[in-house]
Sequence to fold (419 residues):
Amino acid sequence: MTLPRVAYLTGEYPRATDTFIQREIAAVEQCGVRVERFAVRRPGDEHMVGDEQRRERELTTYLLETPKAQILGAIAQALVKSPRRFLRTGGLAVRTRRRGIKGAVLQAAYFAEAAVLAQQLRRRSVDHLHNHFADSSCSVAMLTSELSGITYSFTLHGPAIFFEPHEWFLGTKLRTASFCSAISSFARSQASLFCEPEYWDRIRIVHCGVATGPADDGNRPVTAGDEPCQLLFVGRLDAVKGVLVLFDAVAALIAGGAAVRLTLVGDGPQRAELEAKSVRLGISGSVNFAGYRSQAEVRDHLATADVFVLPSFAEGVPVSLMEAMAAQLPVIATNVGGVTELVHDGLNGLVVAPGDVDALGVALDRLVSDVDLRGRFGRSGRLTVSEDFDSLTEARRLVTLFVDPRHPSPDRIRPLPFK
Fold:
């Protein structure tokens, strides 16, 4: 089997929150595919939380750092190379621009970025372009494909894109891409609303994944009975993550006499508000704001926690939950997006309604007070991730689609590791 040379594109890479993309690229490369990394813009130093991010940043080409003269040269080259493609791409850009003057200006920038990327892809003999997320960087990928003739695909995460699918012309992208890898059945079902049935078979489920070994039947270390139960949240500190609800539930637990301590790994625009609320609730002494951490440091937090909590209002299939379950950590999550494709209530974790402080408090109390239940959920959760969300297995599926997106067969959906 001949493997294509693939380029990955994202809007900003690598960010501290992009470990799932870093992991996917590593697994795709492990399958024998050569990957070229591109991003529209360079992330700030605050995202360089570990050697993994610094290494990936060095390997990434940033389109916005291209000198103006080279941008103009790339546009001119695209026009001379194929005037017909150039005009066709211009028409596509006009049809898929966002509303207003700002939308037109941004679309012109996307066209210029596409010309630069098309030139780079040809120079590096890239066969296929894959993009993560369906918004602005996917617009660049779509225009690049039209301009260069190189096929493209994209990973559909959700839920944000489903709040404004027409604004980002999701239907057009589903029709022009060679395939779309949806991270969940939920994402696939939502995407199907925005394209005709004849395009549904292009939407393939490829999970984000985590590295796992054989499931372990052993037990995690348990916090001593006289020590606070260690609760852990990992994610961006943003309103969508529901941390304000978690704070109310933790405050109620503490008021009821429970000994708990909550660690928040991550950062974001809501941090100041959360810090202030922890003071108002009188729980600041029981809450640790750890900020962004490296992958190794996150693993350390997972190893020492007792319960993982993700009280989000909207999600795809959270990789942070996968990582917690792979670490044999019992989890509490909300029934949003594709979460219940990973966490099965009462079997490998607990699932509550988003925004329900009382339900979240009851779930927390169950796991804080029941060590045996924590152990049972932890073992079952690890088995779930090992069987259905392993990063190398999912990378093999993705590579199969890079090779032949139109005619996948069972032996190609889960091929043996490429040599």
